[in-house]
Design brief:
Layout: H1 2-31, H2 38-91, H3 101-112, H4 153-157, H5 161-164, H6 169-191, H7 202-212, E1 222-224, H8 237-248, E2 252-257, E3 260-265
Antiparallel strand pairs: 1-3, 2-3
Length: about 270
């Protein structure tokens, strides 16, 4: 029995050695399949995997930043929408065509006023024009400009269709801009020194000063019906309709002084 047991143990040891030898042979074969490139390929795979991990981490960081920025972006969008709404509301008060307020004024004053230091007609020698009237209004420092008070679409819609006619907000507001230009030109003529007023306009300047000192007009900006020379407001049926609408909406008032029809610009209450 002892001999048989010893033989079985020896067979087991030999079998174990044989299995180990076979495993070692398989490992050697697997190692020597691509002996030149196996290590390099494994290093390249490792580097590629690490690079992909870094890219994935960068994507995660960017997504986190974008997620945190979403509330701020929503606030900016809300603020932009509110600002857009304010601008839309303000655009109602601005006519589609607003010519330069001073273009006509500069044209008129260049014709009416002499530049500083320019000598007047030397044919008169030392002849002096008549003295300015004692009631000449004195220009105040920081004289306010004529009131520029546009109308809104709601105001125009509140009028009857007969009064409104074919007038539009843009056309009426462009006419208001013309009226401000006329009134500013008259104000400059009224307050201009005598030496700056052309001789052929001196009589008109005196007449405008008399009107400016009239009770009810004193201290206000105005123009005459004869000043209505465009580009929008003219003494035609459309111009008369515009003045009717503006009187009804409280933008102007009218009076008559001598032969002149005087239109007074009213301020916003």
């Amino acid at each position: 029995m002892e001999v048989k047991t010893a033989g079985a143990s020896l067979d087991s040891v030999i079998s174990g050695f044989n299995r180990r030898i076979a495993e070692l042979q398989d490992l050697v074969i697997a190692r020597n399949v691509y002996p030149a490139s196996s290590v390099t390929d494994l290093l390249a795979v490792d580097a590629a995997v690490k690079a992909m991990e870094l890219q994935v981490q960068a994507i995660k960081d960017r997504l986190r930043d974008e997620t945190l920025a979403i509330p701020k972006a929503k606030k900016l969008v809300d603020a932009a929408l509110k600002q857009q709404k304010k601008l839309q509301d303000m655009s109602v008060y601005v006519p589609s065509h607003v010519p330069e307020r001073m273009s006509m004024l500069n044209l008129d004053t260049n014709k009416c006023l002499f530049p500083e230091g320019t000598q007047q007609n030397t044919g008169f020698g030392s002849f002096k024009l008549e003295e300015e009237p004692a009631a000449l209004p004195k220009e105040k420092k920081g004289r306010s400009p004529p009131p520029l008070w546009f109308i809104t679409a709601e105001e125009l819609d509140s009028l009857s269709g007969y009064m409104r006619g074919r007038l539009t907000v843009e056309k009426i507001n462009a006419a208001i801009n013309d009226m401000v230009t006329y009134a500013e030109a008259n104000a400059q003529l009224i307050f201009a020194p005598k030496k700056k007023v052309a001789g052929d306009l001196w009589e008109k300047a005196l007449e405008m000063r008399d009107i400016a000192m009239t009770e009810g007009i004193r201290g206000k900006h105005f123009f005459l019906e004869t000043d209505m020379k465009g580009p929008t407001l003219k003494p035609d049926n459309t111009g008369k309709a515009i003045l009717t609408v503006l009187r009804h909406l409280g933008r102007v008032s009218e009076t008559r002084i001598g032969p002149h029809r005087v239109i007074i610009l009213l301020k916003r209450p």
